[in-house]
């Protein structure tokens, strides 16, 4: 699981941190942060793609922060701002910026700037309004932050003349400057271009290997596409394709039914609601083989699912039932069929008086984690499975015209977005320009328009990802927020 992966990384990092902080061991730090991991664990946000993605990315950046803590003599230390979505509603903290997403989760933003392991753990817990009482049982100094700094093992505070004489950077001045000056795109690129170029060059052989493996497997199995649910590193993706290649060599007969399908590497095995073959990255070949052997049964269930969608459409005046991977949780075919079947039975019993084909051209998606219907900016209705039929009827009638206008606007927006991506890629000689799923088309359009007004020679040959924060990924991709300054 993702938690297990993060824990292994932290164990490696924190074991070396012992050399710098004797007040807290690596195992103690992991135990101390356990409530935090339970609160922000991406697997708990399976039905909320945006929140899950933000937490995954923030955990990666937290791991990078802890790696810097353990580097001997590390001087170019920089404060790190992180954002997490927390499951529970806790009392607001006065030292943290909080907001609530549409799904009801609490968004917590805070900045880490301590060089001390214990102080960092306390900062994380306090910022997320999580209790620190359990740290007392670890036999370490669990006093409040200010008192923790006054212990014998506190970081050395040098006189200002020390930094003037040695030329080293004063961490307090760096922190004050970071708090005074907002990060700008140009300054961030100045500081991170060299690191990104180094990582990108190192990843180029693996990128070529990934493209080769993907092409060969797609051609050999006659697949429509091979995808990944998460932003795993290039090495990880190559490893997954090698595993699939070995299965093809060992059991070619079980893969005879995959022609024309899309394979998605994700957290669990099965068939998705969109009809894609899901291969769980934690599963062994035996589990994958079972999935391929069951494909004929999955295809039969998929036909029944399409028939069910058509019946629902008939009951709702011709409105089309769709499933959008980017906006909905990754459901299995069985889970989605049960959702449709329950919704259909409710509609059939209510016998709503929709005129046949009166809503043709409109679209709707079913959601199990909402209680009130809404209209998306792209024109599709977002209907809760528990929605009262009478409320559903009134809402669709009231919003039908607006939905049609939004659908027309969507078509124009998608064309504009693609044109701006192509123009930006060409102008800056980018190798690739893409966005995270949590970034909307409107945000991407705004970002690209402002980028085209700039002169950015740093970007030549780079992979640029439009996100919600600044980051250099492990394979050299540059992430910048869509609303950069």
UniProtKB/TrEMBL annotation:
Cellular component annotations (GO), alphabetically ordered: mitochondrion
Entry superkingdom: Eukaryota
InterPro entries, per the entry: DUF4460, DUF4461, TCAIM
Pfam families reported in the protein's UniProt record: DUF4460, DUF4461
Domain DUF4461: from-to ranges: 183-485
Location of the DUF4460 domain: 20-130
PANTHER family named in the record: T-CELL ACTIVATION INHIBITOR, MITOCHONDRIAL (PTHR31596:SF1)
Record-given protein name: TCAIM protein
């Amino acid at each position: 699981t993702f938690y297990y992966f993060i824990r292994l990384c932290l164990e490696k990092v924190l074991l070396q941190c012992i050399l710098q902080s004797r007040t807290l061991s690596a195992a103690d730090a992991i135990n101390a942060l356990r409530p935090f991991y339970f609160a922000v664990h991406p697997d708990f946000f399976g039905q909320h793609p945006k929140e899950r993605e933000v937490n995954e990315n923030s955990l990666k950046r937290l791991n990078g922060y802890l790696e810097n803590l353990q580097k001997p003599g590390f001087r170019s230390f920089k404060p790190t701002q992180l954002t997490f979505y927390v499951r529970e509603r806790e009392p607001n903290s006065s030292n943290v910026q909080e907001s609530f997403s549409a799904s009801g989760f609490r968004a917590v933003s805070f900045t880490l700037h301590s060089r001390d392991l214990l102080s960092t753990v306390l900062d994380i817990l306090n910022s997320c309004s999580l209790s620190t009482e359990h740290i007392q049982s670890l036999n370490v100094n669990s006093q409040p932050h200010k008192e923790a700094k006054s212990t014998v093992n506190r970081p050395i505070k040098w006189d200002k003349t020390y930094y003037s004489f040695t030329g080293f950077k004063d961490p307090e001045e760096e922190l004050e400057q970071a708090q005074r000056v907002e990060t700008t795109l140009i300054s961030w690129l100045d500081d991170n271009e060299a690191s990104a170029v180094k990582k990108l060059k190192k990843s180029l052989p693996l990128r070529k290997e990934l493209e080769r493996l993907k092409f060969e497997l797609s051609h050999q199995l006659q697949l429509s596409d091979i995808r990944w649910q998460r932003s795993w590193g290039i090495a990880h993706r190559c490893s997954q394709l090698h595993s699939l290649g070995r299965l093809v060599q060992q059991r070619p007969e079980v893969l005879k039914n995959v022609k024309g399908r899309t394979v998605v590497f994700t957290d669990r095995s099965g068939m998705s609601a969109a009809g894609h073959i899901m291969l769980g990255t934690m599963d062994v070949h035996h589990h994958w083989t079972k999935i391929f052997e069951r494909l004929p049964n999955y295809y039969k269930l998929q036909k029944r699912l399409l028939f069910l969608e058509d019946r629902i459409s008939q009951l709702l005046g011709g409105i089309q039932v769709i499933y959008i991977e980017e906006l909905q949780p990754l459901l299995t075919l069985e889970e989605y069929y049960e959702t449709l079947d329950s919704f259909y039975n409710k509609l059939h019993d209510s016998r709503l008086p929709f005129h046949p084909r009166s809503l043709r051209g409109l679209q709707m998606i079913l959601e199990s984690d909402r209680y009130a219907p809404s209209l998306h900016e792209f024109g599709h209705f977002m209907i809760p499975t528990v929605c009262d039929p009478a409320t559903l009827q009134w809402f669709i009638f009231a919003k039908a015209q607006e939905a049609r206008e939004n659908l027309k606007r969507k078509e124009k927006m998608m064309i504009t977005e693609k044109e701006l991506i192509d123009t930006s890629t060409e102008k800056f000689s980018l190798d690739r320009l893409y966005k995270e799923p949590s970034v909307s088309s409107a945000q991407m359009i705004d970002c690209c328009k402002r980028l085209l007004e700039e002169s950015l020679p740093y970007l030549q040959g780079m992979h640029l990802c439009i996100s919600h924060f600044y980051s250099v990924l492990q394979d050299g991709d540059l992430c910048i927020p869509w609303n950069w300054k």
